[in-house]
Amino acid sequence: MKRIAGWLAAVVGALALMGVLAFQFMPAVQDRVFAAGARRQLARQSQLPTGDEAIRVVLCGTSSPLPRLQAAKACTLVVAGGRMFIVDIGPESTENLALWRVPTPQIAAVFLTHFHSDHIGELGELNMQGWAQGRTHPLDVYGPVGLAEVVAGFNTAYSLDRQYRHAHHNHGKGLLPLAAGVMIAHPADFVQPGDVPSGRTQIVYSAGGVVVTAIETDHRPVSPAFSYRFDYKGRSVVITGDTVFNAGLAGAAKGADVLVSEAQAHDLQNIMAREAEAVGQSTLASVLKDTSRYHINPVEAARLANQAGVRELVYTHIAPPLVFGFLKTPWLRGVSAERPNGVTIGRDGLLITVPLDGSAVRFDQLQG
Ligand SMILES: [Zn+2]
Ligand SMILES: [Zn+2]
User: Fold this and answer.
1) Percent of the chain residues past pLDDT 70, beyond the cut
2) Which of 13, 239, 311, 318 is 20 to 30 A from 73 via CA?
3) Nearest ligand, measured from the Cα of 244
């Protein structure tokens, strides 16, 4: 028995060695191996279920502006009624969408909460990717007043790229039509810059049973700033964008199934500010200190969820970054007293399923 096992090991070893040598020295073998791998990758379908029995939310970016390798900046994907929507498109988030094979040409609209760079950094990239992969119409973008300037700026910045790609890939077959490569701004002007936030709302999108409501929120001095509420067949999801606690938002989020709230643990952020000062980074220290004045902390977000009577609270835009799992304990300090049934700290790829039949919200993870 032992002798047979020895022979077998020798044969397997010899075959493996032959395989390694063949790959090392024979280009045809290298190409065959590469082709097999490429086919496997290219045949991978999106892991995102789109069936019409639930609203689905995927966190495509959960980081605050402070860098974290495993987390893109602000981005939330909502799927309802067979339509895909993006709320904010921060740096690195389009990489996530590509890795999960999200079909970007099918994105129905983008909703921007405000124009901080960690929320809009990859608007141009998302637009170009969707167009280069086959979108045949301009991309609709919704947001507060100021949106026209932002969208025009991205359209201008990418105009040469549109021309290069059109000239290179059109092949006289109508591929990559220039007119489809731009974005169209749909600013909601019911809130004007400088208005004192009072939680006003306006429906900004309604199609196929999906209703999207912009909610005036408080991220001053950034003004206006919006949260968004998605309603579909009796279920609803609210995404806060950046905000402080405010009663208007709690009112507009009333009865939502899921609240995706930004959150910053101010006490930890202030410790970071002190340490930045101590190592001579005074500008960073000053900026870090300022952030507490226009962000909500995890306990306040829990109160907001309670006041609105939402079923599930999911944190995103996590600040400071939770680079070690054990940091969740100080980050969540005081939260369990507010939400004894638990909360969820968001991570990139978290898939939240809100069944239309009202059954329990489910949490899964998309893999890259
Ligand atoms: Zn902001
Ligand atoms: Zn932000």
Assistant:
1) 100
2) 311
3) 1
